[in-house]
Amino acid sequence: MEAAPKRKFSRVEFKIVATVKHGQRQFVGAVSNLSLSGIFLVTDQCLPVGEVAAILIALDDQPENSVEMTGKVARVTEEGIAFNFDKIDYDSFIHLKNIVALNSGDESKIQDEMVDRVLV
Questions:
Q1: What average pLDDT does this structure show over 10-24?
Q2: What gap in Å lies between CA 44 and CA 110, rounded to an integer?
Q3: Is the pLDDT of residue 2 over 50?
Q4: How far from chain centre, in Å, is Cα 106?
Q5: 12-119: CATH superfamily
Q6: Residues 6+ positions from 33 with CB-CB distance below 8 Å
Q7: % pLDDT > 90, the chain
Q8: Is residue 71 within 8 Å of residue 18, measured between CB atoms?
Q9: Contacts of 112 (CB under 8 A, 6+ apart)
């Protein structure tokens, strides 16, 4: 039996709502976990694997405190949708890095992962 591939990026639980935009369609999902490379949203919505959507996580009421990225649907389950991040601007990436670092308990490991992510 072959072992599952080891994750390259740490995943952390982070409970907040995210908005997904795909074409003319928009829906929300509850963030279950996220990493520097992806996110899993709990939602009853479905998108085809391989589709790209815009994802917005508003951390508060200030637009500059949001994380915006595009993600490609990696898998769909009964619980929700997993996205691999496709594009993310610098400010959003720094917010994401801070969220993951603060929730991981190992900021130095996240710094190393950030370097790996930037070099990918």
A1: 88
A2: 31
A3: no
A4: 19
A5: predicted glycosyltransferase like domains (2.40.10.220)
A6: 11, 12, 13, 14, 39, 40
A7: 52
A8: no
A9: none
What tokens appear for 24 in the block?
A: 């003319």
Q: Where are the extended beta strands (E) located within 1-120?
A: 12-13, 17-22, 25-34, 38-42, 52-58, 66-76, 80-88
**Residue ranges per structural domain of the chain:** 12-119
pLDDT in tens, 53-104: 999 999 887 777 889 999 999 999 999 999 999 999 999 988 888 888 888 7
Token digits of residue 86: 């496709």
What residues form DSSP beta bridges with 21? Answer: 26, 54
Strands 25-34 vs 38-42: parallel, antiparallel or unpaired = antiparallel
- Helix, coil or strand: residue 113: helix
